[in-house]
Amino acid sequence: MEFKGIDVSKWQGKIDWQKVKSENIDFAIIRDGWGKKSSTQIDKKFKENIIEAKDAGINIGVYHYSYADSIEDAINEAQFCLENIEGYQLEYPVVLDFEDKEMLKLNTRQRTDICKAFCEEIEKSDYYAMIYTNKNWLKNYLYKDELLSKYDLWLAEWGVSSPSYSCGIWQRSATGRIKGISGNVDIDISYKNYPEIMKNKGLNGFISKTNTSRNYFEYQVQKGDTLWSLAQKYLGNGTRYQEIKILNNLKMDTIYVGYILKVPK
Questions:
Q1: 75 in a domain, yes or no?
Q2: Same domain? 184 vs 227
Q3: Which of 8, 30, 31, 99 lies most in the core, judged by the most C-beta atoms within 10 Å?
Q4: Rounded distance, CA 204 to CA 190, Å?
Q5: Are residues 30 and 117 in the same domain?
Q6: Could you report the per-residue pLDDT of 231-259, keeping only the tens digit for each?
Q7: Residues with Cβ < 8 Å from 38, sequence gap 6 or more?
Q8: Parent domain of 170
Q9: What is the pLDDT of residues 188-236, one digit of tens each?
């Protein structure tokens, strides 16, 4: 089974996601940001892309571009990524984009441990972690067997008829052309039914199909919603908004259109 996808960031500019969907695109991996926490390091098109892609019926995942040069940095980057994706349901993995040339100053052990630290931190919050890199890095700069025994691979390898390594997703081209996007865009093939995995296992914001006893339901935030108004509507008292906040592990009172919130029954 194969699924056709793309990956995008602010460099693709304004995207017409309805036109993208008409090209039989099943999924999109969207950049949330890069490096450690900073308001200037959230991709400026992230929220727009994630909301409009979902509205168009396209399954989504996210990738975070790493500059980590230590385990501590990797954990901080993962926490930044988790903060950015808070409240969204993701049908595809949360991906560490590991390819920056600055990391070549490290040794293979350090690079591999950084990948592990990032992915472990992502998994602690019940998200499905994945590693993106290219064939050269996988072969020469990482202990690939250690990583691939535990995490799925998103492999960048262009100009070939099939990927050199077994992978969950193959980025087969960087020069694709898709309606709704100006200029080139990366084209990807997924070999796993990730939406089914996430929903069945209750990962990436989904409730497990095998556990229906939870005492809450899911609600997608609409324009004009606030935690207070949702508490007033569903709990009968706006002052109970803290219950929603705690259930969703929200650090702030702000919610955004497109969020999937757990609301107590």
A1: yes
A2: no
A3: 30
A4: 17
A5: yes
A6: 888 888 887 888 888 788 787 788 888 88
A7: 80
A8: 3-201
A9: 999 999 999 999 998 998 876 655 556 788 888 898 999 989 988 888 8
Instruction: Provide the angle, in degrees to the nearest 10, between the axes of the packed helices 108-124 and 71-85.
Output: 30
Query: Same structural domain for residues 120 and 170?
Result: yes
Residues 225 and 150 in one domain: no
Residue 192, C-beta contacts closer than 8 angstroms, at least 6 positions apart: 1, 152, 168, 169
Contact 123, 78 (CB under 8 A): no
Residue 240 CA to residue 203 CA, distance in Å, equals: 27
Q: Return all residues near 101 (Cβ < 8 A) that are at least 6 apart.
A: none
> Is there a contact between 230 and 244 (Cβ–Cβ < 8 Å)?
yes
Give the number of domains in the chain.
2
Which H helix or E strand runs over 262?
strand 260-264
Show the tokens assigned to 255.
């919610």
**pTM for this model (two decimals):** 0.82
Side chain identity at residue 77, one-letter code: E
